[in-house]
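Task: encode each sequence below as structure tokens.

Item 1
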Amino acid sequence: MSFSLEVLGWSTSWADTFAPHAAGGLTPGRVARVDRGRCDVLTASGPVRAESARADVCTGDWVALSGHYVHAVLPRRTALVRAAASGVSSGQTLAANVDVVAVVVPATTGVDLGRAERLLALAWESGARPVVVLTKTDACPDVGGVLDALAGAAVGVDVLPVSAVAGEGLDALTAELTGTVVLVGQSGVGKSTLATALTGVDLAVQDVRGVDGKGRHTTVRRELIPLRGGRGVLIDTPGLRGVGLYDASDGLTLAFADVEALAGGCRFTDCGHASEPGCAVRAAIDAGQLPERRLESYRKLLRENEWAAARTDARLRAERRRSERVAHRQYRNQWNRPGHGRR
């Protein structure tokens, strides 16, 4: 089966970037799935199962193929990155070259506003446009109340209610989701059902546990699937149990733009928003204009991001020291060889 590169997101600007590879006879393609050193790449001639020696190839990447081998990865224009699940001080790219990050939140198990804010910080940091999709509204007795709560946590972001089962809200959502779209959220929030409605591809949906509202991992790896009507492509991700921030200072600033704007009116530039005189943030909380919960969420995510940045700096310093030791050892060995001693 062949694919139109334009439907996959190809453009004249991508063609310009790819030009040096085209001159070398290489083929452009977009990574649809990565699995143990191999990846499925969609090309104008059809899908290719390719090998790659690069560990950083990710779903959504544009690559240059030499036969069945990934010769090069084009520079990413956006990237959704979280802290590596293993706890090491590095980032894990969930999706590359994304236009829209759809944060999927269920309306049935209560709204975890802190998790929504965390995902929105990652979405803003990616460089893509975030939206919030409130799923399973057919099973929610107070959709309006949930929407109001989300609106306070998703400042500057559209919140779109949908019921994929009842077919409600899908037209409005489809109009918003164009280009390359990635769905993110916990397992059981309705991502796979939503992805099926948006793509027409029947994705397996497993039951949600009644105890905690969580589902089994329906999607086991990230996959790129064309949207209905040729409007773009969808990247469906596995449910995210843990989402750590990684170098997301700009994303936090945008996700908490209301807190940042209030902080600009504080008397002291280093105001901690605790008991300092002239604190505009505390004044807004006292007046009921800003929930205390939102400030605490902001502080928590700031601390986490600063901790991750410190770990990254420590890792870079350690790598630099190792490189210096290797260079010094090579230099010493060179001058210890016969004929290079002191005279």
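Item 2
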Amino acid sequence: MSQTLTVNAPLTAADGELLTVKLARERRNKQLKAVALVAPLAIFLLLTFLVPIFMLLGRSVDNPEVVTHLPATSKLIASWDRRALPSEDVFQAMARDLTAAKEDKSVPEVAKRLNMDISGFRSLIQKTARKMPLELAAGESMRDRFIQIDERWGDPDHWHVIAKNAKSWTPYYLYSSLDLRETKAGTPELAPEEERAFISIFGRTLWISFWVTVFCLLLGYPLAYWLANLPARKSNLLMILVLLPFWTSVLVRVASWIVLLQREGLINSALMNLGIIGEPLQLAFNRVGVYIAMVHILLPFVILPAYSVMKSIPPTYMRAAISLGDHPFAAFWKIYFPQTVAGVAAGALLVFIMCIGYYITPALLGSPEEQMVSYYVAFYTNVTINWGMAAALGSLLLIATMTLYAVYSKLVGANKLSLG
């Protein structure tokens, strides 16, 4: 009796279903469950992190005022050759748009936006809107009637501003944040020196952030090394002191430094009582006070990454290098230090990124010469209600942060490849 063997027969489960099909369905079900578990967090991050960022970027180029409230003028002025004054149709469209804007009380929005480009445009728009609707005499053109109301309507530069803003987006806020202005040809050029402000503010922000980072590294690296080489009991006790500032509000810590650093504060009083100084030092409301408070607040962000890396380095490496005849400092520099670079660089990057967005400490402990970019973001948000400028400055800070992170990632990746 012969038996026939089936070669490459498909495997089936106990219920007769193909095993490959059943495994694929099980795998798909597990993936769906994983997605369902992660979905709430992904939605939360999307709504609270990504959506605000995209809204911020969009607001920095948003330009709705002229297009929304002067629609007919915006449409007709797009075909203007920008040489002489616009055609009669444009003047008639402006009269209709201003009449409608007067009725729905949107004239101040248009006037405020156009006044950003030419000072005095606010009064021109409001003065003309009060005359609406216009009644023309026999044989009189709308152009003549506008120029009769105010001679500035006969200036092509004012119409250039309207034409430039007759679109739903504008680079105006980003240009202004970089001390640039748009020419009649639409190209950016550097503003006159007396009108420049933000380049120096960005430079000041980067300069203060750089030195705060350097001071944090100079203080944090030795302290992290000391903590990493102490016995566990002492190290844990001192680590509590490092973490203690995290349990106190930044505002409270800054207020404490004001009490300590002011002319009649505890530090000046102690130095004068000891005879070290003859008159109080100016430690508060200047850059010295800003540096002291920011270093104190941000120092743990260098210590913790450096400590975590140092703790993972076996002490036998240093002992082996010294036992082979190397000097302790040379052994530290060639063996120990390169292994701590990643943690120290991460801490330095974190401190620098946090510094460029700092607001409370320079605002309370610094003079007007120490205010950083974030101060002006708050100023345009809360005082002048200029959301475009606030968004543009915030967008530039975001771009700077992402650039720093990209550079750091590239350097760390290159360092890993070289070590490998």
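Check on item 2: The mean pLDDT is 87. The chain has three domains: 12-45, 65-167, 198-419.
End of task.
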